[in-house]
UniProtKB/TrEMBL annotation:
Phylogenetic classification of the source organism: Bacteria, Pseudomonadati, Bacteroidota, Cytophagia, Cytophagales
PANTHER family: BIFUNCTIONAL UDP-N-ACETYLGLUCOSAMINE 2-EPIMERASE_N-ACETYLMANNOSAMINE KINASE, ROK (REPRESSOR, ORF, KINASE) FAMILY
Species assigned in the record: Algoriphagus oliviformis
Protein family: Belongs to the ROK (NagC/XylR) family.
Protein name, per record: ROK family protein
Amino acid sequence: MEKAILGLDIGGTSIKGGVLVKGHLEDIRSIPTPALESKEHILETIASFIDSYSHYDFVGIGIGIPGLVDSREGIVLGLANIPSFQHVELKKFLTERFSKPVFVNNDANCFAIGVHKYGVGKPYKNLVGITLGTGVGGGIVINGHLYSGTFSAAGEWCSAPYLEHNYEYYCSGKFFHNVYQSKPKALAKQALAGDPEAVRAFDEFGHHLGELLKMIMYGLAPEAIVLGGSIRKTYPLFKKSLFKSLESFAYPTVLENLKILISELDETAIHGAVALVDVEQDMVEV
């Protein structure tokens, strides 16, 4: 059996998994999340899913979740859209069940270390990963290491006040839904066909995202910002207004050296979960 790393992405609607073997992600699967069931039922569902990968000799399990995590102890403090999954000792449960190292972190943090380890962020020691989807997530890599902060809450710029709401309202799918009563994919199709309102929607979105990136740059001045999530695919539609917004950044030299990159990885959440284990393995080997 090949040595492998198992990565899980646990969300409100599905639990996805995949294994990294010889640097390649394979055997990607998903099952529905029993979101309204008890904590015990959900834990057993996760364990059964891991059991389905038992033909791999995996050296560790990495898990990304959309919520706050005590990453040192592997305790899930709260998981979005799963009411019963509060203060769950996930690491302890899985370590005792499988006798393998288990690492748990916020999914946006996983994205950041994943693109640094396997994706377009490889050349950069200092980067920020931003996921643009239903919401906005952020992860920080400093000097080649993931910075999670207390309870994995570093990079939660989404909740910072901005205009009449917060950054997530204006820099995620919520913007298109709340302001234009549509979804990004549908509006993108209309914008590509030249629909003026759809074009305007992405222009406005790019401006708001630029304001978010400027705030990040003032605090961290990263070498690169990597955009992920489903909305990244519409980047050509908001690229111009994004860079127009960035022009007012106070330090031109910092801006000139910043790389804004689009993640090319598929299954970024699983790549990120795998990276939690892979990074630890590298540290042990050193």
